[in-house]
Every structure is written in structure tokens, then in C-alpha cells.
Specification:
Structural class: alpha+beta
CATH topology: Lipocalin
CATH class: Mainly Beta
Distance between the termini: 28 Å
Strand content: 35-45%
Number of strands: 10
Strand order of the largest sheet: 1-3-4-6-7-8-9-10
């Protein structure tokens, strides 16, 4: 459960970018402004800072090996009740390192995953080093200057299939 929570909340976090090599040849300044490398750089710069989870929706098809679909929906009005933890805080540093902090309802730190991150296109890639080495990714969409949507697939219900879809929103707080 902690691993799933870690994954979901890190997914709300944000990542920066490794720029791909630029294409050789000439291009106008207008083309350069909208190039994938420029968009990655802009997303990476936008993600640097401290973020807090605002909402999470998880859809789990094939719940308990049936035709049923289960849902988890948490937002600012019911986050603690649904998730049984405080909203997750994630810090993305300009050196492409990150850490997330998970606190239980009494305020005790229960998990602090760390690692590095990068952006490729509109995909945020986490390279978690602790507590468990793993790599995962999420699509990132800007909602406004402070809120971003993170979309990901995972095995939240631990049925052996990465068929659960998560959509989370995180807000820049610093």
C-alpha cells in the first residue's frame, strides 16, 4: 500500500527535462520557440519547486478479478478521509533531484522517496532511488500557472496488471 501511495503521489509531483539533441539545419526563431526541446525546457522549468497533491482519481477495471470497476476519488474536501494521509508534498530541484514527503494523519513522516527526474516531451519520468529503486512516468498537462494534471497507468489494486488509470492534480505551493 505504501508503494502504491508513493507512486501515486510522486506522480503528482513534477519533473524537469533532458533535452534531446537539436536537429541540424536551420530553422526560424518561431520554429525554435515551439520545438519539442523548447517545450520540454519550459515544462522542466515550470516544475521546479514545491508541489502539493490536490486531487486524485483512480479507475481500477477488473476489480477483484470480476467485471466490476472500482474507483477512488479524493480532492481537497475529502483527501485525508479517502487517502488516510495528509496531502503529499513533492519538491523538484533544478539539479533534477526530487523528494516527496508522506505524512500520516497525526503528522508523522511515513515515507520520503528520493531520486532524479527528467522530462521527455510532455512525459515526466521519475527514477526513484529510495526506498525502492524503480522508474515510472506520467503525462503532464498544464491547467493554469499553479496547477498541473498528471496522468498515469499502474497496478494500484495489485492484481498483477498495470491497467489502473490515475489522474492527479498537484499545485505549486513554493
Amino acid at each position: 500500500m505504501i508503494r502504491n501511495i508513493t507512486f501515486c503521489f510522486i506522480l503528482f509531483s513534477l519533473l524537469a527535462c533532458n533535452q534531446p539533441p537539436s536537429d541540424k539545419g536551420s530553422s526560424s526563431s518561431q520554429d525554435q520557440e515551439t520545438s519539442p526541446a523548447m517545450q520540454e525546457n519550459q515544462l522542466a522549468q515550470a516544475l521546479i519547486g514545491t508541489w502539493e497533491s490536490v486531487s486524485l482519481q483512480i479507475t481500477m477495471p477488473g476489480w477483484n478479478n470480476t467485471d466490476s470497476t472500482a474507483y477512488i476519488t479524493a480532492d481537497e474536501s475529502n483527501w485525508e478521509e479517502v487517502m488516510q494521509i495528509k496531502p503529499v508534498t513533492t519538491v523538484f530541484n533544478n539539479d533534477f533531484s526530487y523528494h516527496a514527503e508522506y505524512y500520516d494523519l497525526s503528522g508523522k513522516l511515513i515515507n520520503r522517496p528520493t531520486g532524479s527526474w527528467e522530462v521527455r516531451g510532455n512525459t515526466l519520468i521519475y527514477h526513484e532511488e529510495t526506498p525502492v529503486p524503480m522508474t515510472f512516468q506520467q503525462q503532464v498537462e498544464k491547467i493554469n500557472d499553479t496547477d498541473y494534471r498528471f496522468i498515469f497507468q499502474m497496478d494500484y489494486d495489485q492484481d498483477g496488471l498495470e491497467d489502473d488509470k490515475g489522474v492527479g492534480i498537484s499545485r505549486r505551493i513554493y
